[in-house]
Amino acid sequence: MRLTQGTFSFLPDLTDEQIGAQIEYCLANGWAVSVEYTDDPHPRNTYWEMFGLPMFDIRDPVAILGEIRTCRKTFPRHYIKVNAFDSSLGRESLRLSFIVNRPPSEPGFALTRQEGAGRTVRYTTRAYATESPEGERY
Amino acid sequence: MPVMSTFTASAPDDETRGSAMAREPEVAAAHAANGTGAADELDLEAVFRDSHIAEVLDELDTQLVGLAPVKSRIRDIAALLLVEKLRRSVGLTTGPPSLHMSFTGNPGTGKTTVALRMAQILHRLGYVRKGHLTAVTRDDLVGQYIGHTAPKTREVLKRAMGGVLFIDEAYYLYRPENERDYGQEAIEILLQVMENQREDLVVILAGYKDRMDTFFRSNPGLSSRVAHHIDFPDYTPGELIAIARLMLAGLQYRLSPGADAAFQDYIDRRRGQPHFANARSVRNALDRARLRQASRLFGARERALSKDDLVTIEAADILASRVFAASPRESAS
């Protein structure tokens, strides 16, 4: 099951050229771009690992593309996303976030039902990948 | 080998032009692209006009006094980049030329100013994408403990991507007296990027002539990757006066005729003294003259001032300098 999180996630994977063009747009708006990775694809997992610090004062997308490539080389089978943070007053939040790398096979999520008191049923999703310990998934 | 790739690369271009002969037009194109003239359909003049490079070069001429060898080298580089552009337009191979430079010269000879212009010129020519200048020194590149240098240098390189990285006093990167110095690590990362990402970044190393020469001798890898070694000559007294006039015009001041003569005298004396830093000394001298002019005006504040008073620097403002106080003693001893 293909993970659909963030912008462009229903499109085919972006090429490096397209990623570069998106980053160019972010930089033109003065947003700080950062690279994050994880192997826990649960939608509620908002805390992905940072690959280096957010990159402020960058003028050219090549610098960030270089960082993405390094991250892919280090974690070829992880999910990697690019975030663009807008630091302007009153906004101070992410403006754009999209996945730039995903594992070759994505097993998807299991839906677990928990029967509670009375006829209550609680639902929860769990990624099949997280059955194995961190670093050995995918 | 390059000749072979030239033909293969431009073969499709031939077909689109419907040329019967495979090779002759290539040779003709090569001749035209090398600048022998705009006789064929190739118009170097048009490329020159479209690039708006003339404005930058004119600006360079009017705003920077002297520096003839520097200007001629910049013109050469501009010409090369234009011809490369033309070559690309007809499908000839164009390896990105290595444009890393080293600026050597005494303090105050305009190395930083020219570097800034260089970034603009390269941007106009489409050689660097953004055209910003990142000026750094050893402190910005070299870390304080093991493992600190590489991320720091990479950080700086990332910021400089798409523009020009200006390393001032580059010889401080290499400290032969301390073999555990982290500067060597910074140089190695720098070398790698200078070689592999030539199209993303232009590195300009600057510093005093003799120390840069030593630096390059001890880092042959670096020296061979720097294609342009440009030496900045000292300014002549006449050029220094012209620089002073330009600076004052920019600040909307002017020298009275008396002050003009006094300033020429000042420059003659100052040049002979230690720590003379060319245009920087001129700027400092003018700043001090402005201070004295202000306090002179303040001292005579009961008198009504005209706009002319505010603009004019008098001879007294310059003659009060300690350069004039020192000289008679020197000549007396």
Characterise this structure.
The complex is a heterodimer of chains A (138) and B (333). In chain A, helix 1 crosses helix 2 (61-74). Chain A has helices at 16-28, 61-74, and strands at residues 32-38, 49-50, 79-86, 93-101, 109-115, 121-127. Chain A is α+β, with helices and mostly antiparallel strands. In chain A, strand 5 and strand 6 form a beta hairpin. The longest helix of chain A has 14 residues, at 61-74. With 333 residues, chain B is of the alpha/beta class. Chain B is 61% helix and 8% strand. Chain B contains 17 helices and seven strands. In chain B, the strands form two sheets. A five-stranded parallel sheet of chain B has the order 2-3-4-1-5, sandwiched between helices. A two-stranded parallel sheet of chain B has the order 6-7. In chain B, 32% of the residues are buried. Residues 1-39 and 329-333 of chain B have low confidence and may be disordered. Classes of the chains: A alpha+beta (138), B alpha/beta (333). Chains A and B meet through helix 2 of A and helix 8 of B.
Name the strands of the widest sheet of chain A in spatial order. Answer: 2-1-3-4
Helical fraction of chain A equals 10-25%
Q: What's the total helix number of chain B?
A: 17
Q: What's the main sheet of chain B like?
A: 5 strands, parallel
- Radius of gyration of chain A, in Å, reads 17 Å
The most extensive interface, with participating residues per chain, is: A-B, 10 and 11 residues
Major β-sheet profile of chain A: 4 strands, antiparallel
Mean pLDDT of chain B: 81
Strand content of chain A: 25-35%
How many distinct helices of chain A? 2
- The arrangement of helices and strands of chain A along the chain is HEEHEEEE
Taking the alpha carbons of the first and last residues of chain A, their distance comes to 13 Å
Please provide the ordered H/E string of secondary-structure elements of chain B: HHHHHEHEHHEHEHHEHEHHHEHH
Helix percentage of chain B: 55-70%
Structural class of chain B: alpha/beta
Please report which band the strand proportion of chain B falls in: under 5%, 5-15%, 15-25%, 25-35%, 35-45% or over 45%: 5-15%
- Oligomeric state: heterodimer
Distance between the termini of chain B: 71 Å
**Uncertain spans of chain B:** 1-39, 329-333
Number of strands of chain A: 6
